[in-house]
Amino acid sequence: MSSRQETANGPRREFELGDEEFRFLASFMSKETGIVLSDHKRDMVCGRLVKRLRALGLREFSQYCDMLRGPQGHAEVENLVNAITTNITNFFREPHHFDHLRDQVLAPRLNERPRRPRVRIWSAGCSTGEEPYSIAMTMADALKGCDGWDALVLATDIDTNVLRRGEAGLYPLAALDHIPESYRKRFVRRAHEADKVQMADEIRRLIRFRRLNLHENWPMKGLFDAIFCRNVAIYFDKPTQRQLFNRYADRLFMGGILYLGHAESLIGVSDRFEAVDKTSYRRIK
Fold first, then answer.
1. Contact partners, residue 257, CB within 8 Å, separation at least 6
2. What are the distances in angstroms from CA 114 to CA 29, 150, 154, 224, 233?
3. Nearest alpha carbon to residue 84 among 25, 172, 142
4. pLDDT tens digits, one per residue of 189-233
5. Measuring CA to CA, which residue among 77, 90, 88 is closest to residue 160?
6. Could you tell me if 249 and 118 are in contact, meaning their C-beta atoms sit under 8 angstroms apart?
7. What sign for the dihedral angle of Cα 27, 31, 32, 37?
8. What b/e string do you get for 115-134 counting C-beta neighbours within 10 Å, with b at 16 or more?
9. Burial class for 6, CB neighbours closer than 10 Å (0-12, 13-18, 19+)
10. Are strands 207-211 and 150-157 parallel, antiparallel or unpaired?
11. Which of 24, 156, 251, 285 could lock 212 by a disulfide, CB 3.0 to 4.6 Å apart?
12. From 120, 157, 204, 251, active-site residue
């Protein structure tokens, strides 16, 4: 409804997200992505979708829901997800995970001296790229002086906007505060843009950014040494979490590590991992 209309309590909000429309959007997001939108997130959903409704020239949430139901619905999913999902991250967030990666994943692999040295790490829900770049810097430092290693970080997210930012590797100067000084000197460059820094080509080459909906089929065939899935499962209900963690176990080498966010746990969700450190879990079956 238009903001110019009046109600008994004063001016009506420009867009009103009613019960029926919110239930439809919550159901649609759950079906398409597995993301759960509980009732307390209604104001957030409304606020984030207002710009999208304006861009489409729509005046009502009911019109937007009708569009999602219609032939344009599939094409609109990407824009809907980009608007709804939250992307808050920093370089080396929860630094104990990167210490564990260096000491308990990468160091033992180096000591094995395999004939075909290979490391694969997946950053699932990579947001704007700070996490995969943190992984890549840790990896490049650990493998320093080791020739012939085939090392790669797969960085995936459902939001195409943040993936483009990650691929560009451009960040504000303030982002340097979270990067260890030794890494800053080796892996970060001043960008042509004012007040921006650029991740070094050496690090960018280690990462492949790809769009992936965790709720759909995964195209990857090989196994990973470690998977970072931090602050992603909190968006899913318990049945979806059980399915997700089971799929992660299938994509890890036996003994591979799954890193979760500080508010996440596998207790009562999966028996295929054992805790080895703070929010760090080893695949055991």
1. 100, 101, 104, 105, 225, 226, 227, 276, 280, 281, 282, 283
2. 44, 11, 21, 16, 34
3. 25
4. 988 888 999 999 999 999 999 999 999 999 999 999 999 999 899
5. 77
6. no
7. positive
8. eebebbbbbbbbbbbbbbbb
9. exposed
10. parallel
11. 156
12. 157
Q: Which two tokens stand for residue 56?
A: 């489409």
Q: What angle do CA 272, 275, 281 make, to 5 degrees?
A: 65
Reply yes or no on whether 54 is catalytic: no
**Residue given tokens 């499962």 in the structure block:** 233
Q: Is 12 a catalytic site residue?
A: no
Three-class DSSP category at 200: coil
Annotated catalytic residue: which of 23, 48, 93, 186?
Answer: 48
8 A C-beta contact, residue 132 and residue 236: no
Q: Are strands 10-11 and 6-7 parallel, antiparallel or unpaired?
A: antiparallel
Bridging pattern class, strands 196-199 and 188-190: antiparallel
CA distance 125 to 232: 6
128: closest CA among 79, 181, 171?
A: 171
Tell me the pLDDT tens digit for each residue of 144-163: 877 788 999 999 999 998 99
What size, in residues, is the chain? 285
Prediction pTM value: 0.84
